[in-house]
Write a structure and sequence with these properties.
With 334 residues, this protein is an alpha/beta fold. It is 33% helix and 18% strand.
Length: 334
C-alpha cells in the first residue's frame, strides 16, 4: 500500500453526502499525504471542492441524467485513463462491485453486498447503517489505515462570533421536494419562529440558496416584525458554500432543516438546532451537545421512515407537527 499515488473515491449524492464523506478523504490524505485524490460525484455537488483542499480533482458524473449508463461508461473510461492505484466507493448497490472491477483499478474497496462483491473487491466492507453516516463511510477505509477522522473538517476563514445572533436557513434541496421528500416545517411556521425570536430580543439572520427562493419569499411575506432592526435579510448574499460557511461560523446559534448547511455547521462546531421529521437524527448528526435535534412529540410508529422504510414522505407528516414556541424554547434554552 506504500505505492499509493493516485486515489479515486466515488460518492454520489447531494452536497450533504459529500460533506459527510470528507472525514474518509481526510484520513486517506493523512495516510498518503503525497497521493492525489480524485472524487467522482454528481455535478450538483461540485461545490464541495470550495470547502476543502484534500480533493485534487473531480469527475462529474450525472447519474440523475436520463443517459446515466453512458455517464457510468464515462466514469469507467476516466478511471482507466487515470491509472489509479486505489478506488473506494460508498455505493450500497450490489452492482457497484462490477463497476469498480471494470475500472481496472487494482485495489478496490466497497461495501459487502453479497458473494459478487466478495469476489470482485479487494475488501468487501461490512455495511453498518446504524451509526453516524460519516462513520459509516469511514468504515470503507478501516483496512487501509488506522487513522480515524470522526467529523467533517472544512477550510473557512476565521471569523468572530457575533453575540446574540440566530442564523436561520430554512430550506432543503429542490430535488428533495420534487421527489416528494418533505423534511421541514412550513414557511408560515418559520415566520412565526422568527417573530418569536425577535420578540425575545434576538438578532435574527435569514439566509438561503437559489433552491429556497419560494420558501424565503413566503417567510418574508408572513413575518410580522419584518421592519424590526434586529431582522437581517441575508438571502442572496451567500453566493457559494464558502460564503455560507463564513456566515454560519460568525453566528452564535444556527437553526436549520435537515439539509447540507447542517453538515457545514457540524464541521464548524457552531451551536446548531435542526428540525427533524421523517429522517433519522442519529444517522445524520454526531452525538455531541453542540448539535441538537428538534423533533415532534408524535406517536408515529414508523418514524424515522424516510429511506429506511419509504422513499417519499407520507401525507400526514405528523413528524413535522412542531410548534414554533417549542422550537424557540429549545433554541433559547442554553
Amino acid at each position: 500500500m506504500n505505492e499509493i499515488k493516485k486515489i479515486l473515491a466515488i460518492n454520489f449524492g447531494g452536497i450533504g453526502d459529500e460533506i459527510l464523506f470528507l472525514p474518509t478523504l481526510i484520513s486517506l490524505k493523512k495516510a498518503y499525504p503525497d497521493a492525489k485524490i480524485t472524487l467522482a460525484l454528481e455535478p450538483r455537488s461540485k461545490g464541495i471542492k470550495d470547502l476543502t483542499d484534500v480533493i485534487d480533482d473531480l469527475f462529474l458524473i450525472d447519474i440523475k441524467f436520463k443517459n446515466k449508463y453512458l455517464q457510468l461508461l464515462k466514469l469507467i473510461f476516466l478511471s482507466r485513463k487515470g491509472k489509479f492505484d486505489l478506488v473506494i466507493s460508498s455505493g450500497a448497490n450490489k452492482f457497484i462491485s462490477i463497476l469498480l472491477f471494470l475500472t481496472g483499478i487494482k485495489q478496490r474497496y466497497g461495501y459487502n453486498t453479497g458473494k459478487l462483491s466478495q469476489k470482485l473487491l479487494t475488501v468487501a466492507v461490512p455495511l453498518n447503517k446504524n451509526q453516524y453516516a460519516a462513520s459509516m463511510y469511514h468504515d470503507l477505509i478501516s483496512d487501509i489505515t488506522d487513522i480515524k477522522t470522526k467529523l467533517p473538517e472544512i477550510n473557512v476563514e476565521k471569523v468572530q462570533k457575533e453575540p446574540n445572533t440566530v442564523l436561520i436557513h430554512p430550506g432543503v434541496s429542490k430535488l428533495s421536494t420534487k421527489l416528494g421528500m418533505i423534511k421541514t416545517i412550513s414557511p408560515v411556521k418559520w415566520a412565526k419562529v422568527i417573530d418569536l425570536l425577535l420578540e425575545k430580543g434576538k438578532k435574527v439572520i435569514l439566509a438561503g440558496g437559489p433552491d429556497d427562493r419560494e420558501c424565503i419569499a413566503q417567510i418574508k411575506s408572513t413575518i410580522n416584525n419584518f421592519e424590526n432592526s434586529n431582522f437581517i435579510d441575508a438571502y442572496g448574499q451567500t453566493k457559494n458554500l464558502s460564503d455560507l460557511a463564513k456566515l454560519i461560523a460568525s453566528s452564535e446559534k444556527f437553526l436549520c432543516s435537515d439539509s447540507a448547511p447542517l453538515h457545514i455547521a457540524v464541521a464548524l462546531k457552531t451551536r446548531t438546532y435542526v428540525i427533524f421529521g421523517p429522517t433519522d437524527d442519529k444517522i445524520l448528526i454526531p452525538q455531541t451537545p453542540v448539535i441538537n435535534a428538534i423533533k415532534a412529540d408524535d406517536n408515529c410508529e414508523l418514524k424515522p421512515c424516510l429511506w429506511q422504510k419509504r422513499q417519499t414522505t407520507c401525507q400526514e407528516l405528523s413528524c413535522l407537527d412542531i410548534l414554533p414556541e417549542d422550537i424557540v424554547h429549545k433554541v433559547l434554552l442554553d
